Amino acid sequence: MSREIYRDHISPFLDKRDSERWHKRAVDALHIAESTSFGLKLIEYASYQHERFQDPRLEVELGGVVFENPLLVGAGWDKAGRAVKGLHALGFAGVEVGSGLKHYITGAIAEKMLYNSEHDNRTNNPPTHLS
């Protein structure tokens, strides 16, 4: 049943939307929600069994840092670190904040930096000189 709902309703709806705009809205919503203890509790309530799930069997070590579970948010999702508390409340053990660019780039320049790789069907940032 749930596959059909996703295939017939959710996917067609999402496919017609601007993913960058919805990504920004998601980060903004988490940022607003995490700004109060009540908002953080609401985020936790929306997660598994209405509280942060913890189990010592899920602990992982990465680069000498021990994480309580293997769920990490990769680089690029929250570049400015605006929703770290909210992501933690959802159950993520870590968030990679920032990017490899020396200066923050916005607008038309940033859009031109993105290109579609024909080789692997992913959107990538081209190599950038950091010095």
What report would you give on this structure?
The protein is α+β, with helices and mostly antiparallel strands and 131 residues long. The chain has one domain. 41% of the residues lie in helices and 11% in strands. The protein is built from 5 helices and 6 strands, in the order αααβββαβαββ. It has helices spanning 2-15, 19-34, 37-46, 84-90, 107-113, and strands spanning 60-62, 65-67, 72-73, 94-95, 115-116, 123-124. The strands form 3 sheets. The chain has a two-stranded antiparallel ribbon. It has a two-stranded parallel sheet with strand order 3-4. The protein has a two-stranded antiparallel sheet with strand order 5-6. α3 (37-46) packs parallel to α4. The longest helix is centred in the N-terminal third of the chain and has 16 residues, at 19-34. The chain is globular and about 40 Å long. The termini are far apart.
